[in-house]
Design brief:
Layout (H helix, E strand, L loop, with lengths): L2 H9 L1 H7 L6 H6 L5 H9 L3 H11 L7 H11 L17 H21 L13 E7 L13 H14 L2 E7 L3 H13 L8 E6 L2 E2 L2 E3 L5 E3 H9 L12 E6 L11 H6 L4 H6 L12 H13 L9 E5 L9 E2 L3 E2 H13 L5 H13 L13 E4 L10
Parallel strand pairs: 1-2, 1-3, 3-7, 7-8
Antiparallel strand pairs: 4-5, 5-6, 8-11, 9-10
Helix pairs in contact: 2-5, 4-5, 8-14, 9-10, 14-15
């Protein structure tokens, strides 16, 4: 959808939310392939008309260049919504704004077409794109804080800011907050985006990640707005990078200071040698089978091309963290990228990250860790050119 149309929807949002009943129009938009079946189900699942309207207006701006016209068309055809057409008249935008947005959109398409003839992703814009860092350090309930996570967040922000990304850092986000942040990121104008980055730092279990409210959300549900390229035509052929620092174990336990004292272990050592939100028990055969399946199933939404999911550890294993230097994974990633980003593509650097992390050993449990990137990139990606 053109930026001018998005602005118009935002400007008229109050009026639309007041009277719009999405249940009357989502069927048509699904038939015209503007909305997906999942979009329709999520909208209809909302309990009130207002909440359905709010979610619909969060969703429709991400649905490509035809979405606005089809939305207006169905409003016109439906007697119950016809009165809303007037407030979405294009004349409210001004011809100069529409022309400018159209030219910008076409320019972005030409850049993408040119990029398709090379074996590298183009990195031509300043800024390159957005880097969103969600740093969940403190949690409600009996889930322990992730001491050292602030160091990871700071180092990631400095790294990607130095690489010309617009970096946004959010601390202690609930599940609802995280979903909203991803939706907002997906809804941005990405015509001049070269690359998109999301860093998730939190407690986790197999396939899921914790919000600061102590609730779990499946990664596929959280990241779905950015994974479905048909919902984001401006991002379809551009690399989308996800760095996930979280455990991928079967369940979460709490290690508190009193337990550490009984074992005559300083709390520093507990965190140094394991995430206090993660169990380090032996994996059972059934869990091992589940873990191997989750290696490719953690994100069950349709995996499109041009995606990198860089997990800090394999399924079924903990992701270790240090009070003073941060997590093993982020510490190695930032160090390797700073050293080699001017010379090597991202996959070559991630191999070096794997090597660096694999050489670290817990002096208490003798545990090791190996990161687990999943890659559907179709070209080489150089973050610094």
């Amino acid at each position: 959808m053109l930026k001018a149309h998005r602005k118009l929807l935002m400007k008229r949002r109050v009026d639309l939310v007041k009277d719009l009943e999405p249940n009357e129009i989502v069927g048509y938009l699904f038939q015209e392939r503007i909305l997906t079946e999942n979009d329709v189900d999520l909208i209809k699942a909302e309990k009130t008309r207002r909440s359905r309207a709010e979610l619909f207006l969060d969703t429709i701006p991400r649905k490509g260049p035809k979405a606005f016209a089809e939305f207006v068309k169905i409003l016109q055809q439906n007697v119950g919504t016809r009165h809303l057409v007037g407030i979405l008249d294009d004349s409210h935008m001004g011809s100069d704004e529409v022309d400018s947005a159209t030219k910008k959109h076409e320019q972005g398409k030409k850049i993408e077409a040119t990029a398709g003839s090379t074996d590298r992703y183009p990195m031509t814009h300043t800024p390159r794109g957005t880097c969103l860092i969600i740093n969940n350090k403190e949690f409600v309930g009996d889930i322990s804080d992730r001491i050292g996570s602030d160091i990871d967040a700071k180092n990631l922000k400095e790294l990607f800011s130095s690489l010309n990304f617009t970096t946004r850092m959010v601390k202690n986000a609930s599940v609802g907050d995280m979903k909203k942040l991803i939706w907002e990121l997906a809804s941005m104008d990405h015509v001049t985006t070269d690359c998109l980055i999301v860093c998730l730092l939190s407690h986790g279990v197999s396939g899921k990640i914790y919000g600061s409210d102590g609730e779990l959300i499946h990664l596929s549900e959280l990241l779905n707005p950015l994974l479905r390229c048909e919902d984001n035509p401006e991002l379809a052929n551009k690399p989308k990078l996800f760095f996930i620092q979280a455990c991928r174990v079967s369940k979460v336990v709490t290690v508190d200071a009193s337990e550490a004292a009984k074992k005559k272990i300083h709390s520093y050592e507990v965190v140094l040698h394991g995430d206090p939100g993660c169990t380090t028990k032996q994996t059972t055969p059934n869990e091992a089978q589940e873990s191997s399946e989750l290696f490719v199933q953690d994100v069950v939404a349709p995996m499109q091309a041009n995606i990198l999911m860089s997990y800090s550890t394999l399924p079924g294993h903990a992701a270790w963290r240090n009070f003073e230097t941060g997590s093993w994974f982020v510490d190695a990633l930032v160090d390797v990228f700073n050293k080699y980003v001017s010379q090597e593509d991202i996959l070559s650097m991630l191999i070096k990250v794997n090597d660096a992390v694999s050489k670290r050993v817990s002096s208490i449990s003798q545990s090791r860790q190996i990161p687990a990137p999943i890659v559907t990139l179709t070209k080489k990606l150089y973050l610094k050119v």
